[in-house]
Amino acid sequence: MIRIGTSGYSYKDWVGPFYPETIKPNQMLKYYSQEFDFTEINSTYYKVPDPKNFYKMAEITPIDFTFSVKLFGGMTHTRDAAEGDYRKFLQGLQNLQDCDKLSYVIAQFPNSFRHEPKNVAYLEELMERFRDYKLAVEFRSDTMINVKMLELLRSSSVGLISVDEPKLKGLVDQGVFATNRSPYIRFHGRNESKWYNNKASQERYDYLYSEKELSEWSGPILGMEHSMDDIFVSFNNHFNGQAVVNARMMKQLLGIQ
User: Fold this and answer.
1) How many domains is the chain partitioned into structurally?
2) Residue 18 is part of which domain span?
């Protein structure tokens, strides 16, 4: 199965471009799930959620809907999360898994997380903490893409997220990685000029892919379809609902109704 969705769904600037003007925030997920069968929960990056929230999200979505959950930033960026944060986060994941609606746990690391012994050791510790869940890692440093890292991920059936992002020095190159049987691809946009501009960081993901750009991926995705269990494709170019536009475009390219 190929699942197409977006990174997050609760954005004020999607009201109009995607959501009706009268929609309330607590109605967005139900509306979203009428068209897409999976989404990433990225609010968890900013705050460890109340575990009960996952039950509520599971209840209002269709039976075949599934979620990916991004790890708290204290676990991937500042790496100073307390043990209580881990316990609370794991309980929330278990609640979602009990409802059979958890697809992946996403560990997105910053560009500063490079291939050094201390960072590899930290990653191995994180993999052990989340060993009971399907984990996928996203690296922003190209130093992390090497034979030893691929072997480590494959040996633990941890996914390596493939990314579409600007072709800038030090970032991971475009390409499909499959370190387990459920490849995961995330589209961030190709905003080279704004990627490292702190003043315009909120516009980093303000990008609309063309059909030609997405077709660079549709062939490889279809080529994997019959040899993999599931394929996840997520659009993070969320500015003004552009992720929805491109998710719909990708569904058409892949022949998904």
Assistant:
1) 1
2) 2-254
